[in-house]
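Much of our argument rests on the idea that a fold can be written as discrete symbols. The amino acid sequence and the backbone structure tokens for this protein are reproduced below:

___
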Amino acid sequence: MPVIPSELVRSGAVPSALELQRKLLASEPLLADTKTHLIEVVDVLKSYGEVLDAYSKNLIYQAEDQFLVPFPLFKYLNGDKSIAKIWRHLCHDRINFEYAEYCMKSMLWHGTGGMDAYLDSDQFLNNCALIIARKRRDPLLGILHPVFPQFLAELIRSAATTHALGQFWRVMSDLFIDLASAEADGRIPGPTERLASP
């Protein structure tokens, strides 16, 4: 188990729950407005941005390139089916794309807000029927659809939700990484500069 060096560990008093509640209700920042805290927060967001970038690319790949594939064995490979990539995947030398999929499943099962109104509409079911009619030329889908008539419509619903989350994370990733670049370039004023501005 790795040991965190002492210079990276901060010790000090942790605010009580009541103090945190008071600050939140008073619209006060939870962290002191210092250059160090700014860098720490921006760097955390940058690391999220890098992970969300990978998640976004994979979710969009799954929704577009694995569309109506009943058994998507290579969905986490983003189209790279090289032996080296498959081996790294099997050895878990990769980003945990399953987490992104769990988030998507949670959206699918618990609702997506306004998107659900469309996914539950007759228009969506009619569009599903048109897609299924075109895709039934695939022998496996041709067999599955008559036996399980709701299966392909549910796969389409899942692909739509997957793509929506991938697009959302694409935007969030770009925002976080752009924020980190702006901070690194000095385009975000520090605490003293903000106080001095009119």
Q: What stands out?
A: The chain has a mean pLDDT of 85. The longest helix spans residues 151-184.
